[in-house]
């Protein structure tokens, strides 16, 4: 009996030992897989930047091999960085112009992507030399390193924390930020979020940045404005609250006054006030079946059922049939979301030509329109909900911070 009991314990132990042995073999194989030249170059670049920027050790995760980027990501980063540094050498413009580098370089970007699709290491030598020459120049200019500033250090702490939690796949954002620190030698609190929004959202480079850093999120929320519904534009089927902050669908069409600005097809309503300059942010609680949020040009037509897309003067995000979340572009851009947002934040920067949408609960970026706005824009809202109201939240109400315990960043 004792022997059978022991046998009962021995067999699983043997199987566990075999599994551990196989796991160790796999780990060894992964470790032995050689790094590409571009991966090694990124590790060396991280080491140089780590030396140049005082009181910042975040890039040690890269040059010590804890954060190894995929080869294609390394190659793309090298070419993009070399292009930016090359522009810096050949122009007298200040660092602030680099917030618009990518929108002006779409042809170059397409060429880069075509090159990367070919695979292999390609001929990266010229791009690497530009970066190496720049790092040598920085060492000679700043033998004692550069103080990045308190705002940058807070941002780096935030990025590192999110990387450790798995919210960021790689630390490329930290490398980019420190390169811009050295280009400008100092980035103030306002420039950091502008830079992040331009590089990570206007170009739709959101593979690893659905997450929004605290500094950026607070800056967005600082642009909060009060938005109210305009009853003169509401479709006759819509019922508005007395404070013009809520709306839902009624059972039948109301008798309403005639207005050129009134929607008579789509179940939509515009805001009372529009924006022709500046930064503006507002939040909306939405239903779970079908809704539409965004902005419309002052000249946009609202009669009938014409498509509400950029060609007709509308820049909107829509949930259709409770499952399809899409930006109403031409053709439509379908957005894969693990969870359909219940609260949506809309951020408009008129001068930058940026209209972004956020999932407030998850504090995550959903989609950005990058346009050149030339006329007044009015927030627009749509719903088919009869029970659940669409609600515009007050400007002074913010979602609690996601940090556990006291927040170090707000």
From TrEMBL:
Q: Which residues form the signal peptide?
A: none
Protein name in UniProt? B30.2/SPRY domain-containing protein
Q: Which organism is it from?
A: Triplophysa rosa (Cave loach)
Which segments of the protein form a coiled coil according to its record?
none
In terms of Gene3D superfamilies, this protein maps to: 2.60.120.920
The organism that produces this protein has a lineage beginning with: Eukaryota, Metazoa, Chordata, Craniata, Vertebrata
List, for all copies, the residue spans of the domain called B30.2/SPRY. Answer: 207-399
């Amino acid at each position: 009996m004792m022997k059978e009991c022991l046998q009962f314990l021995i067999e699983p132990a043997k199987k566990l030992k075999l599994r551990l042995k196989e796991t160790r073999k796999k780990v060894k194989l992964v470790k032995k897989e050689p790094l590409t030249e571009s991966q090694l170059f990124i590790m060396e670049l991280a080491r140089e930047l780590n030396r140049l920027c005082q009181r910042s050790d975040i890039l040690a995760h890269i040059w010590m091999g804890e954060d190894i980027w995929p080869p294609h990501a390394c190659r793309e980063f090298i070419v993009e960085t070399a292009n930016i540094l090359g522009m810096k050498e050949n122009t007298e413009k200040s660092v602030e112009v680099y917030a618009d580098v990518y929108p002006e370089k779409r042809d170059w970007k397409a060429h880069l992507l075509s090159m990367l699709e070919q695979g292999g290491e390609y001929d990266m030598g010229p791009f690497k030399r530009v970066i190496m020459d720049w790092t040598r120049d920085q060492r000679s200019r700043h033998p004692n390193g550069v103080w990045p500033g308190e705002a940058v250090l807070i941002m780096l702490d935030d990025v590192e924390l999110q990387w450790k939690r798995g919210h960021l796949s790689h630390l490329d954002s930290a490398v980019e930020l420190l390169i811009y620190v050295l280009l400008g030698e100092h980035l103030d609190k306002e420039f950091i979020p502008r830079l992040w929004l331009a590089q990570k959202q206007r170009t739709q480079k959101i593979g690893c940045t659905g997450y929004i850093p605290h500094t950026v999120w607070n800056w967005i929320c600082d642009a909060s404005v009060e938005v109210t519904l305009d009853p003169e534009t509401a479709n006759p089927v819509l019922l508005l609250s007395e404070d013009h902050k809520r709306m839902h669908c009624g059972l039948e069409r109301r008798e309403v006054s005639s207005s050129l600005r009134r929607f008579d097809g789509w179940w939509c309503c515009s805001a009372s006030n529009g924006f022709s300059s500046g930064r503006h942010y507002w939040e909306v609680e939405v239903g779970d079946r079908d809704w539409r949020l965004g902005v419309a040009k002052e000249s946009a037509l609202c009669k009938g059922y014409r498509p509400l897309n950029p060609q007709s003067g509308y820049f909107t995000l829509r949930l259709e049939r409770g499952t399809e979340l899409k930006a109403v572009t031409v053709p439509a851009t379908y957005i894969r979301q693990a969870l359909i947002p219940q609260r949506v934040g809309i951020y408009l920067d008129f001068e930058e030509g940026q209209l972004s949408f956020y999932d407030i609960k998850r504090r995550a970026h959903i989609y950005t329109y990058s346009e050149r706005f030339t006329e007044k824009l009015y927030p627009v809202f749509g719903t088919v909900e009869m029970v659940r109201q669409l609600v515009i939240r007050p400007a002074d109400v913010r979602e609690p911070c996601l940090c556990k315990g006291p927040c170090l960043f707000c």
